[in-house]
Design goal:
Elements: E1 14-18, H1 23-35, E2 39-43, H2 44-58, E3 65-71, H3 75-89, E4 93-97, H4 102-113, E5 120-124, H5 132-137, H6 144-157, E6 162-164, H7 170-177, E7 182-185, H8 204-210, E8 214-217, H9 219-222, H10 227-241
Parallel strand pairs: 1-2, 1-8, 2-3, 3-4, 4-5, 5-6, 6-7, 7-8
This protein binds cytidine-5'-monophosphate (C5P).
């Protein structure tokens, strides 16, 4: 199946995280996201179950794809994975782990540049599930914030377009990495929504005001009895705040 066109001019501010193995439901959520002008984020759960064919199948035409597979391997393998992902699915954004090191980051960036439709390479810094004790267990004695800044700057110095970060890290990373480095932020909850397992949540308007470039919002849309109405309500909340 040919890639559906994704005009470069169409840059969605919000990506709806669809973490499910129910194909029809994923498709419904993707249509809901597209109806609100949002992109779609698919990650390991959906991709591992279905692969590129179903990624393409559920993505409404023109809807930007954020493919969140967090590549982390030797540079040659990561370059190959970026090439394959770009050719098969034409994502607007792809993730890698900054902890893979400078050569791995550069390999991902070079592979992205060579793609017909260049994806943005976004790095994951320290997973937000890790606390200081977890970092120490893997030999990192630096405090978590310094480690996040170190990895973000490493990603930037080696050509990555931006990082995934928690809302609470936006101000610190904007300062450390400047205005052009993309900050993509999950853990976002519209006014009045349940936080779920996210510990430090922020509203979409707050995150944009602090300097986020793109937001990732999942369950407030996908757990809703009417995903399209919820996505449109978030879009309206953002327009109202603009
Ligand atoms: O449902 P919710 O809005 O919490 O979805 C957030 C999405 O962002 C999920 O796909 C989750 O895996 C991802 N994510 C996150 N926190 C991070 C990194 C990614 O919630 N630190």
């Amino acid at each position: 199946m040919p890639l559906k066109p994704q005009p470069a001019s169409r840059i969605a501010p919000v990506f709806c995280a669809i973490d499910t193995t129910e194909l029809a439901f994923a498709s419904r959520c993707a249509r809901a996201a597209a109806a609100a002008g949002f992109g779609v984020k698919l990650g390991k759960e959906f991709f591992t179950a279905f692969g590129p064919t179903e990624v393409r199948a559920i993505l409404p035409t023109g809807t930007p794809l954020f493919l969140d597979l967090k590549f982390h391997d030797i540079p040659n393998t990561v370059a190959g994975a970026v090439r394959s992902a770009a050719a098969a699915m034409g994502p607007m954004m792809l993730t890698i782990h900054a902890a893979g090191g400078p050569a791995m980051i550069r390999a991902a960036v070079e592979a992205a540049k060579a793609a017909r439709q260049k994806p943005m390479i976004l790095a994951v810094t320290a997973l937000t599930s890790l606390d200081a004790a977890d970092l120490k267990a893997v030999g990192i004695t630096e405090d978590v914030s310094s480690w996040v800044i170190r990895l973000a700057k490493l990603a930037q110095d080696n050509g990555a377009d931006g990082v995934i970060c928690a809302a609470t890290e936006i101000a610190m990373l904007r300062k450390a990495c400047g205005p052009d480095f993309k900050l993509v932020v999950p853990g976002i909850r519209p006014k009045g929504a349940a936080a779920g397992d996210q510990k430090r949540v922020m509203t979409p308007a707050e995150a944009f005001a602090l300097g986020a470039d793109h937001l990732v919002i999942g369950r407030p849309i996908t757990d809703s009895p009417d995903p399209e109405a919820s996505a449109r309500a978030i879009a309206r909340e953002l327009e109202g705040a603009a």
